[in-house]
């Protein structure tokens, strides 16, 4: 319960499409597969194909963006706490990075502080919903319009879009300084396939593609993603059931006296009465893995991925027992 993977297996169509193309693994590229994937993805995101770039995971999309940022001499800013992986990627690429604190406890944007940290020579990374705090950082167009005016580039990570049902994808039609990153790992249950994509204006898309090696997505992964797109009904079912499991789990945790943020993702962010690492250690002794943190701002929190009902029950029983001993 520590990696925010889907609790559900992929659609049956995923296996069908992988099987269809597995005998063509001797080829670097299958044009018909690539064309059909981009066509279906374009329909899904409601943007022209010229605004789409597929990557072998959203991590690789972020790496391409980091290289674009470095080539433009921009400084990267991100809110904190947020997705620590971006901090690591920036440092790997030799990019200067600054952290802008979210408001304590509620982990909301401080627009006054963001305004002071803005500038045309700075890029801003925002995961929306936020990881690890699980909440929306913004859900209004005015906030994004404000940020696009303040920063030279804005990166919005919508890894959990399907759970939040809020996107700013339509902004890329007119904003040349916005890029959106998404993944097939969560709602589409394809974490192991490693497929992600970026949405941007046509001009910015062409520039990002300069940092993308050709034939980088495995044929079977592309086929898996196409199969997932062909079964939107299944994806919607996965999202619906995940949300039901998440909300039921949150209610039980609240009944134990714990503070749990209102999640718009497939995980919960839980405040603990002692450092989260102590809770995580004791859960691990019972065979349950959750995410905990050494950062001061969130040291008394754990992040718990929503699992199947049986696993959630085991987790609830374990944390209930642990709380009684504190």
Structure description:
The longest helix has 24 residues, at 232-255. This protein has 326 residues and is an alpha/beta fold. The protein is built from twelve helices and eleven strands. The protein starts with 11 loop residues before the first helix and ends with a helix. The strands form two sheets. It has a seven-stranded mixed β-sheet with strand order 1-7-6-5-4-2-3, with helices on both faces. Strands 8-9-11-10 form a four-stranded antiparallel β-sheet, with helices on one face. It has two domains: 12-231, Type I PLP-dependent aspartate aminotransferase-like (Major domain) (Aspartate Aminotransferase, domain 2); 233-324, Aspartate Aminotransferase, domain 1. The protein has helices at 12-22, 31-45, 58-71, 84-92, 111-117, 141-150, 161-164, 202-209, 219-229, 232-255, 276-284, 309-324, and strands at residues 52-55, 75-80, 97-101, 119-127, 151-157, 178-183, 196-200, 259-260, 267-271, 291-292, 301-305. Helix 1 (12-22) runs antiparallel to helix 9 and helix 2 (31-45) runs parallel beside helix 9 (219-229). The mean pLDDT is 97.
Secondary structure layout:
Elements: H1 12-22, H2 31-45, E1 52-55, H3 58-71, E2 75-80, H4 84-92, E3 97-101, H5 111-117, E4 119-127, H6 141-150, E5 151-157, H7 161-164, E6 178-183, E7 196-200, H8 202-209, H9 219-229, H10 232-255, E8 259-260, E9 267-271, H11 276-284, E10 291-292, E11 301-305, H12 309-324
Parallel strand pairs: 2-3, 2-4, 4-5, 5-6
Antiparallel strand pairs: 1-7, 6-7, 8-9, 9-11, 10-11
Helix pairs in contact: 1-9, 2-9, 3-4, 10-12
Primary descriptors:
2 domains; alpha/beta; Aspartate Aminotransferase, domain 2; 326 residues; four-stranded antiparallel β-sheet; 11 strands; seven-stranded mixed β-sheet; globular; Aspartate Aminotransferase, domain 1
